Structure of Alanine--tRNA ligase:
Amino acid sequence: MMTQELFREDAMLLHCDATVTGVGEGGVLLDRTVCYPLGGGQAGDTGWLIAGEQRWRVTDTRKSKEQPGAIVHLIDGDPPALGAAVRVEVDAARREAHRRFHTATHLLCALLPYPVDGCSITETYARLDFHTDEPFDKDAIQAGLDRLVAEAHPVRHRWITEAELDANPGLVRSMSVQPPRGLGRVRVLEIDGVDLQPCGGTHVSNTAQIGAVVVTRIEKKAAKTRRVVLGFAG
């Protein structure tokens, strides 16, 4: 059974009611969830499952290896029973960090027009690896980020058909993560006047909500790879 992915349409939704549809792979499968599973460079959500007085800590969220389209919530302790009704709650602070960092990486893509060959979005930092041998100016990148955040560009997602994506192959910036195929449509993230590319992650709704992010370092990882690492100010 596939899991309804509520986070795809509303990254601000932090809880929902769900039913346990399976137990295995170290966790619990649900019919619907607000928890984002590890993928696309973004870490999985953590949080809680709640049933009455019982609480289970969700230590990670992953895509099921055994049931395509299902999401596994890794938990501490013995799982709830099959068919049990539970409340799913996301760790709000972790989700907020992921949303801010992920949108900030899209701003980096707008500032640095090179293919992306690596990405990691976590609670404490984000990084993008760009396929280029061009040198990067840390101060210039920081100034660009500060400007795009301050300009308060609206951020929204929409869906396009796979045919539309095929007609616009330049929308795909990543060399290592390709949009999922076979569903007939692809989710794209649009930062008004700044960036448009396929993305299934969680984001803020306006660049101003990213707040103060800093370029903590720039590294030459290989002859054709330049890494930019972001952190939060303070």
About this structure: The longest strand covers residues 15-24.
